[in-house]
Target: Tryptophan synthase beta chain-like PALP domain-containing protein
Amino acid sequence: MRPTPALAAGGRTVANLLSATEWMLPSPASQVHTISVLPSQSPTPGHEFAFSNLTTSLGNGGGKGLAAGSPRFHVVRDDLLHPLANGNKPRKLDALLPLLRCRGATDIVTCGGCQSAHAAAVAVHCAEWGIRPHILLRGEQLDIPTGYNLISLMFGNVTYASRSVYAQRDEMLYEHATKIAGSNGTVMWADDIIGEDLVVDEDTTDGNGSRRVMIVKEGAGSVQALLGVMRLVEYLSGLTLFGQDEKVHIVVDSGTGTTAVGLALGAVCLGLQWRVTAVMLADTLERFGKVLDGEIMMCRHIAQQTGILLDPMYTLSAWEHAVDLCRRDSEAKVVMIHTGGTLGLFGLAQRYSPQFTTGEQS
Model:
């Protein structure tokens, strides 16, 4: 029998810790779709495989014929968590935002790139929770706001920062937060609040109406962010599809690495035989932030066959690794975490417009 998983600090079980935490998301639940990998019938170079979404197409015979017995993997559809701010971004805010509100936050300041999914998620969820979001975006204002940039503008108070100013993120964030707080307000870093684990008295949340400005660093990569991802692991481990004694191989695209660490930590603390692979966004500096020929077409190819929309920089890399793993490892169940990011396609369509034209139909 496995020993009861416990955290070193305090001796509380992980289950108790998660159940005692206030969450932003009403439920940790996420849809899980099963994808079958088939030989491609397409004459287009680079289309080595075809795909079938067995979860959504079973009513149309999707589980019969070639799909029977073919390699398959599972996709955790966190891209469906929220209509505007989805994927791993709300997972990382899941425990963080309630904590900041408990500490009396009136305003939250954060930063990101012009098409930052993190910045947009902070703007949306803060607005939903009655906290004023202030977003510092790197670069210049777009002639035509679109994608995550548009969402940030609609829900948050956006200020654009030059690349030279943005290079000194901590100084930039603190200076902006100080201006918002004014002479009577206070400024705190979210990481300091988490480290101190303090609780504010109820009467200090209103006080004399002064502003309490909390700074969340780019990407929200904090200890509190890990809890939201661990909550997802606990949910998945309770599904019949992924029994606690099952061998599961999780694949996730990796930027800051927070989501991958949270998944691995959750698996270890819950005593699961799960392995986590974080797929780096680029293997070279020349590749980082760029879309290669054929990748947008591949995203279209997958969308048309499965109803799942990927982006060419992040989730496509995880999808391709999941395909490779399920074809090589028949013992473990391969699970890809869909980290969202699809609104970023709007920005890419402006940058790579020739690749977003009428093309081959599957």
Q: What stands out?
A: The mean pLDDT is 87. The longest helix spans residues 223-237. The radius of gyration is 22 Å.
